[in-house]
Design brief:
repeat, WD40 repeat domain-containing protein, mainly beta, four-stranded antiparallel β-sheet, 304 residues, 28 strands, 4% helix, WD repeat
Length: 304
C-alpha cells in the first residue's frame, strides 16, 4: 500500500508542472535578481539585486559552483553571447566586463556613462548594445570603444534586442515607440503601437514583437512597411521571447508564462508564480525557459 501511495504521489507531481518550477536560483538570499543561461545552456548566471557578485549555478541541479567577483557595484544586467562562451555584464558605475563563465577569466572591459540597466550582445559579432540611465551605446567588446546609438534627442530606450544574425537592433521607448535600426545601412523604421513603456521585444523571422504591460501583443512586419497590429491576449504582458521549435512565449504581469500560437491565438499556461514576469530567457539546447521576476528569485520551467 505504501508503494502505491508513493507511486500516486509521484504521478501527481509529474502532472503538475504549471505550479512546480524545475529549479529556483535564490542567490545571496536576494528575492530578485537578473539571470541568464550560458551559451551552451548548462550554467545559470544570477546577479544579486543587492550585491556586486554574480552566482554561477549548474542549471540542472541548481547547485552554486562558483562566483564571479569582477564588479565592485551592483550588476544591473547580464547576458550571454549565443555563439561563444562569453558573458557581458554591466553595473551601477557603468563598468562593462566581458568574461568566461567556466573560468571567470575577464577577456575585455569597457566604460559607459551612467548606471547600466540593460544590455544585449550581438549574435555573430563583437558588439554589445548597452542602455544606461544616461546613454544608449554600441560597445565593441574587443576594443572597448563605444558608439552612440541613433536615438531621438532627450529620449532613451528602455528595452532592446538584436535579430538572429546581429544585423538589426530593435529598441523600445517609454512613450510606446519602437524602432528597428539596421547596422549596415543605418536606416531606421518606426512605429508607435503603445502609449505605455515598451517592456520587451523579440524578433520572429521578418516580424518584430513587442509588449508594454497591456493585454496586447504588437506584431509588426517592419520589412514590408506594414503598420502592424495588436493581438489581444487574456493577461497584461511583461515579456516576450521566441522559442525556436515551439513558437512564442509570453510572460505576464500576474506571474504566468504562456505559450502563444500566432496562427490560432491559442494560449497555454506553462507556469504560474506570484510575481510579475519581467524577462524570459530560453535555454538554447533544452526545453527550458528561465523566468526573471519583479519580486521573486529567478526560476526555470520545463516546456512540455
Amino acid at each position: 500500500m505504501l508503494a502505491g501511495l508513493l507511486l500516486a504521489g509521484y504521478l501527481a507531481q509529474a502532472e503538475a508542472p504549471a505550479t512546480l518550477p524545475r529549479r529556483e536560483f535564490r542567490y545571496q538570499s536576494a528575492n530578485a535578481g537578473r539571470a541568464t543561461y550560458s551559451h551552451d545552456g548548462r550554467l545559470v548566471l544570477v546577479a544579486s539585486a543587492k550585491r556586486s557578485q554574480i552566482g554561477i549555478y549548474h542549471g540542472r541541479t541548481a547547485l552554486l559552483v562558483s562566483e564571479f567577483r569582477g564588479h565592485r557595484q551592483v550588476v544591473g544586467s547580464l547576458a550571454s553571447w549565443p555563439d561563444r562562451d562569453t558573458i557581458a555584464s554591466g553595473d551601477a558605475s557603468g563598468r562593462l566586463l566581458f568574461w568566461q563563465p567556466k573560468t571567470g577569466n575577464i577577456v575585455g572591459r569597457a566604460q559607459v556613462p551612467g548606471r547600466v540597466v540593460a544590455l544585449q550582445p550581438q549574435p555573430g559579432g563583437t558588439l554589445v548594445a548597452v542602455l544606461t540611465t544616461k546613454t544608449a551605446n554600441l560597445v565593441n567588446s574587443a576594443s572597448g570603444k563605444r558608439l552612440a546609438l541613433p536615438v531621438p534627442p532627450g529620449k532613451l530606450p528602455v528595452s532592446l534586442v538584436f535579430n538572429a544574425d546581429g544585423s538589426q537592433l530593435a529598441m523600445g521607448y517609454v512613450d510606446g515607440n519602437v524602432t528597428v535600426y539596421d547596422l549596415k545601412t543605418h536606416q531606421q523604421r518606426r512605429a508607435k503601437p503603445f502609449s505605455t513603456p515598451v517592456r520587451s521585444l523579440a524578433f520572429r523571422t521578418d516580424s518584430l514583437l513587442a509588449t508594454a504591460g497591456t493585454p496586447g501583443l504588437f506584431v509588426w512586419q517592419y520589412a514590408a512597411s506594414e503598420p502592424g497590429q495588436i493581438l489581444a491576449v487574456t493577461k497584461a504582458l511583461g515579456s516576450v521571447a521566441q522559442q525556436r521549435a515551439q513558437g512564442l512565449l509570453l510572460g505576464t504581469l500576474t506571474g504566468e508564462v504562456l505559450r502563444y500560437d500566432l496562427d490560432t491565438r491559442a494560449e497555454t499556461v506553462i507556469s504560474t508564480a506570484k510575481s510579475p514576469v519581467r524577462e524570459l530567457v530560453v535555454n538554447p539546447h533544452e526545453r527550458l525557459v528561465l523566468a526573471n521576476y519583479g519580486q521573486a528569485a529567478p526560476k526555470s520551467w520545463l516546456l512540455r
